[in-house]
Amino acid sequence: MRAQIETKKYLFAFIITTLVFFGALVVSNKFSTNRIAEIKSIESNISMDILASETQFALLRDSSCKAIDHSTAFSEELSSLAAKLSYMEDDLGTNNKEVISLKKYYSLLQIKDYLLVKQVREKCGVKPITIIYFYSNAGDCEDCIREGYVLTKLREEYPELRIYSFDYNLDLSVVKTMKSLYNLNDSLPALIIADEPHYGFQSTEDIEKLIPQLKKLREAREKAAQAKTATSTKK
Amino acid sequence: MVEILFNSILYVFLFLTLYLEVFFLITFFEERLKLGAKSATGKLSYYPSVTIIVPCWNEEKTVSKTVESLLALRYPKDRLEIFVVDDGSTDKTWAVIQKFANNQQIKLFQKENGGKHTAVNFGIKNTTSELIGCLDADSFVDKDALHEIASAFNEDPDMMAAIPTIIIHEPKTILQKMQRTEYHTVAFFKRMLSPLDAITVTPGPFSFFRKEVFERIGLFKKAHNTEDMELALRMQSNHMRIRNVHTAHVYTSGPETLYKLYRQRLRWAYGGMKNTLDYRFMIFQRKYGILGMITLPLAFFGIFIFLYNFGFVVFHIVRGAMSKAVEISTVGLSFALPSADSFFFNTDFMSILAYVFLGLGMVIIWNGVRLAEGRFRPSMGIFYFITLYGIVAPIWLVRAIVNILFSRGTTWR
């Protein structure tokens, strides 16, 4: 006598499978929600820090510029935030409402930081190195992926370099204003260096040529490293 | 749109795969109390007469060890005879086996080459024993294996065939170590399929049949070089019970090189699909139980599901590699360590499902090792199986499908 099919067992296996399958979906969504919350919290912290810097700047308007060190502030936080946002874009898709909302807020934070840096530059005469980068991830800009790698590398190499990246297609009035300010056309990637737009892919070397300060920064760093080695050898 | 379609198909396949794993694990929980170690250490109430046929073709190096392992079996000598059938070997097999010529338990036969199944049939025709078994000349047995099998036949008069647990002996190469874990996994599934009457193969190493099987449904037939599968399916189509006796251990040597493994597995995969097609009248037929509803459809469609899932993994690996290549060509090699931030730990739906599959797979491997070895022992074979099997198996599976589509047969060696 052949073993009979037990409908109950089939059903039981089906119920467990369904639970595990949809459980995986729920757990995955839970992780995504937590990540979104983490990004929101980071954005909120940066927002507060920028506000604090603006206030500090206003308070010290007539004081010495030494009290305001904005050379590398927020650069790292914004960079880390950008990496996390990019991860969420891959995870949830570029059309996800939460992702778009986070990107809009991120863009606003970048512009606020950009304006603050501008104010510090005018008041104190310091010359922060900035790059404004417009990209598209709608599948119409192959070179944007490569440009992204170049800028990530540059940011790692020069923490003093402030890179503000904007999604060209983001439906945000401030981003549109930025685009019109620099009279940008549709050829992407576009980099704005020293208020001048540069279209198409720019390699690390191209950018280093466009920003001569980067070379100086590298030389200074190498000198400092050599001096350190010499000191430790003396010891 | 296309991506959504492909993903939807993948989700359906993953659901089915998960369903099967859950189904077998439920069976495992039902059966867990019967999965003990060796049952028969004392004497049996009855010792059925047994003939073990050793078909050999150019096995001069291994046949002696095989026959000696049979002579060492713990079974009354007057109830066990061994037929060594030389199937027209062109090497020194016949000369090598002459050393057993004077042994009362052993009969030597020589015939023209006709294929393994003709050698086994030759033996079957020449015996009157109640139980007839077969042992490939590249395998050898544990001394209690026959005792265990005879005990199972005694306990279940309706059992028509018994299959053992096959273990890869002393694996040396990475591929052999991988196969050892694969065989452990197969041991688990065979044991689970056994009470469900859903076994689809009575493998060459040490499968046993009651003589009436051959009297009722005939001898082995030529069947795409997988005659052991055809006989099992013929038995199943006649509602004859096949059971796995997990305590009967048989050792075999796995192919040591990728090419040899590829040849063996291509034969199995091609033969498996062809035989399933030959017995397609059982597919999705409730009267054939789990065999008709799950095992046979899986034997055929499982290959496509496996390849589809594999294709998905390959697609993502290639896409990742291409992206990395673009990065390297743009900014050069960077040796930065991956971020330790838990934020970047992959927890998308597919990854979580992959973790679930890996976890369930480990439960299966763990229990497979326990069935075959008595207790779990971690080994590199598990690592090789998890990392390599998915890479090498598609090689023969794809070729098997190509052969089916273009009606190309396979060869034994």
List the helices and strands and how they pair.
The complex is a heterodimer of chains A (235) and B (413).
Chain A (H helix, E strand, L loop, with lengths): L6 H53 L15 H18 L4 H28 L5 E6 L6 H16 L4 E6 L5 H9 L8 E4 L2 E4 L4 H7 L1 H23 L1
Parallel strand pairs in A: 1-2
Antiparallel strand pairs in A: 1-3, 3-4
Helix pairs in contact in A: 1-2, 1-3, 2-3
Chain B lengths: L1 H30 L18 E7 L6 H9 L8 E8 L5 H5 L8 E6 L4 H10 L5 E4 L4 E3 L3 H11 L3 E10 L5 H20 L13 E4 H7 L9 H11 L3 E12 L5 H21 L10 H43 L17 H25 L6 H26 L8
Parallel strand pairs in B: 1-2, 1-4, 2-3, 6-8
Antiparallel strand pairs in B: 4-7, 5-8, 6-7
Helix pairs in contact in B: 1-10, 1-11, 6-11, 6-12, 8-9, 9-10, 9-12, 10-12
Strand order of the largest sheet of chain B: 3-2-1-4-7-6-8-5
Low-confidence stretches of chain A: none
Give the helix/strand class of chain B.
Answer: alpha/beta
Structural class of chain A: alpha+beta
Number of helices of chain B: 12
Strand content of chain B: 5-15%
Helical content band of chain A: 55-70%
Counted beta strands of chain B: 8
| Strand arrangement across the biggest beta sheet of chain A | 2-1-3-4
General form of chain B: globular
* Chains forming the largest contact: A-B, 35 and 37 residues
Oligomer: heterodimer
The H-and-E topology of chain A, N to C, reads as HHHEHEHEEHH
C-alpha-based Rg of chain B, rounded: 23 Å
Mean of residue pLDDT of chain A?
82
**Count of DSSP strands of chain A:** 4
Strand count, sense and closure of the main sheet of chain A? Answer: 4 strands, mixed
Largest sheet of chain B: 8 strands, mixed
Cα Rg of chain A: 24 Å
Helix content of chain B: 40-55%
Q: According to CATH, what is the topology of the domain at 50-257 in chain B?
A: Spore Coat Polysaccharide Biosynthesis Protein SpsA, Chain A
